[in-house]
Design goal:
The structure is a single chain. The chain is mainly alpha-helical and about 300 residues long. The chain has 12 helices and 4 strands, in the order H-H-H-H-H-H-E-E-H-H-H-E-H-E-H-H. Strand 1 and strand 2 form a beta hairpin. Helix 7 packs parallel to helix 11. The radius of gyration is 23 Å and the shape is flat.
Length: about 300
């Protein structure tokens, strides 16, 4: 038990050094960026990419994130106005991302209409789009690409929907307890459920992504030394295989969206914990303070949203 406590606080202390070192030495983990989808020219670029892959789901990154949360929380406990500012920034970010990504639903519907017209009425096998430079793909490619729009809505609108109170609750005791107990449940839930699940999903999603972008395949169980050895043969191998011969062939985008989803959930867990703490401390009159909720313009729709 003592070893675990020492290990935890040692990593907390080292997180300040690790973050500072990463910021002041970007070339050691970002020098590969100009060569995305190109051959990595030197061993240094290959090692930098492998470091980026390793540290992207490492213990070091986890403790940097936890330490940042603890620092923000400590300042917020001292100055509640600062904590409210963090809540507004994080919820505002979720709202902006969600409101933009929500347009993918309209694009999906319009594209489906175009596919039906081109396939059933004009009997065309391909659809071309673009201005000056044409982008032509088989209709089956455009039809399978519709799944990407659906994934955009699911992955990028999840925290926006959470902020707006749009997720359906399964309530066994929540509605029957006092206001302060509700906020305590929200705080505990964000710490014990939202954050750990998001971190665990990121761990597997991160390596799942890179296993479809490079070879040799990196693994979550590989130590940094082993990944450095693998970097000697490192090369890009971006997944371009569709489910049909002419189908959509950029399924690696779904893996990127998985990582973005988990990052958004983790950030929203921080915002939800802070909001729950502040509303618990300040009382029922502060509930919904600074909350940027959309107005549906329909009384029945507003009633249904409040019930959810």
């Amino acid at each position: 038990m003592l070893d675990a406590i020492v290990w935890f606080f040692t990593n907390i202390a080292m997180s300040f050094y690790n973050f500072s070192y990463a910021i002041t030495h970007p070339g050691q983990w970002l020098s590969w960026v100009p060569y995305i989808n190109q051959s990595l020219p030197t061993a240094e670029h290959k090692e930098a990419l492998m470091r980026f892959i390793y540290y992207g789901a490492s213990v070091e990154l986890f403790f940097v994130a936890i330490t940042a949360f603890l620092v923000l929380l400590a300042i917020g406990l001292w100055r509640n106005e600062f904590m409210w500012g963090c809540v507004r920034v994080l919820e505002g970010f979720a709202n902006v991302v969600g409101r933009i990504a929500a347009w993918a639903g309209l694009i999906m519907v319009l594209q489906q209409i175009v596919i039906i017209f081109m396939q059933r009425i004009f009997a065309r096998a391909e659809i071309s789009m673009g201005f000056g430079m044409s982008f032509s793909k088989d209709i089956s490619w455009w039809a399978e690409e519709l799944k990407l729009y659906n994934a955009l809505v699911v992955a990028l609108c999840v925290t926006y929907t959470f902020v707006q109170g749009g997720h359906v609750r399964v309530d066994l005791v929540y509605s029957a307890v006092s206001y302060r107990t509700k906020k305590t449940i929200d705080m505990v839930g964000s710490l014990l459920f939202m954050m750990p699940v998001a971190a665990l999903t990121w761990l597997y999603g991160w390596f799942f992504l890179w296993r479809h972008l490079v070879v040799p395949n990196p693994s979550a169980s590989d130590a940094l030394d082993k990944l450095m050895l693998k970097s000697r043969a490192l090369r890009w191998n971006i997944e371009t295989i569709g489910f049909s011969p002419n189908g959509f062939n950029a399924y690696f985008l779904f893996k990127i969206l998985l990582c973005m989803f988990t990052a958004l959930v983790f950030l929203q867990a921080i915002a939800f914990f802070m909001r729950s703490y502040l509303e618990r401390k300040e009382g029922p009159e502060s509930e919904g303070k600074y909350l940027d909720k959309d107005l549906l313009g329909d009384e029945d729709a507003e009633l249904v949203a409040n019930i959810h």
